[in-house]
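Reviewers of the previous submission asked for a worked example of the structure-prediction workflow described in the proposal, so we include one complete record here. The input consisted solely of the amino acid sequence. No template or homolog information was supplied to the procedure at any stage.
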Amino acid sequence: MSGVRISYQLPYTANSATVHLPSQYSMERVVLLAPPAVRVSAPGFQPSGSEQGMSVYSRDSVTAGTIIDVSLAGTGPAPSANGDQGQEQAAPVNGRDSGAPVAAVPPRLDTLKWVLLGGFAAMFLLGGFYLWRRPAGAVAAAGPGFGGDIATTERPGRAPGASRRPR
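From that input alone, the workflow returned the following structure tokens.
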């Protein structure tokens, strides 16, 4: 059995919102989670207890093309500082095991985007500096078809076999 978790961020003016979600696929079970202080009104959904401090509402056998209407009202508590991520225990729902526990999803890489961007910029600059400072003898001779045969990799104007002067 596989599961898909979807979360939404909605405008929540006047502490209420209504969501109309079309079901594109048939689903065995749909579960809604909401803070206990938020009132949930969704036709076909039954209260199924609580899990990790959230009220659980579930609906079985949703066919494709069904419109799921969910109305929310009230406010929930602000997220705690520690995130309560250490309390991942599966709780029975409707007297049976709900399967995998609800897990908090870590934030995306937004907090590291400037570090990553700076690192890529530094690598780009170091690569450019390396190409600019590489010795002339490191240039490979181009073969036929690339401007003619080049017999030496020395710089132009220097006689073949001439040594460099010490600095």
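The helical segments are 113-133. We consider this example representative of the routine output the project will generate in years two and three.
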